[in-house]
Design brief:
Elements: H1 8-16, H2 20-56, H3 69-114, H4 118-129, H5 134-141, H6 145-164, H7 169-175
Amino acid sequence: MGEITIGTKEVQDYLSNPNYMEQLQEQSLEVRRQIVELDVQHSGIVAEIVTTSQVGISYDDNAGGSQNGRKRDLSDVLDVTKRMIEEHRKEYYWKYQTILHQIETCHRLSLVYDTLDAVTREVLNRLYKKKETWECIEYELQLSHRKLLNIRRKAIEDMQYRYNSKMTNLQLAKQCDQAVFTPPKSPKKV
């Protein structure tokens, strides 16, 4: 993941919104649809301008197009239109890249969440996804309030640590459902 780090708020936002990945995927599909629609509009506009300019051009004795204002105006319209569409395309691509980054972050957080032990995942699931009360969780899991607070605090710290670690997503996936998280050993320097 490089220099990218994640904070407590991002972890809590992820935990609180179980449908976030699906929402991001829907947004990415919508932006892709808008990009395709923009390309179709661009092709249609260019075809219309070219057709209009060809119909309105009169030819002189040298077999070239006339240099009157009409041809130049249509060419200018074509250039301006092309620039506007390129600006829109850049905006859509930037938005698409942002959504892809959010999907990647969400995917990595999902892997990190799966590396937590079963009790910790249950506590986070009940607190953030199901939005159960602290008292209910304490009673059903037979935990003191202090123990529940410690589990939650440590879980969020662990998620941040693992997300921000240099572990690859594959290494994180291999850690899923293991009782003990074991960070990879650093390669020995020769």
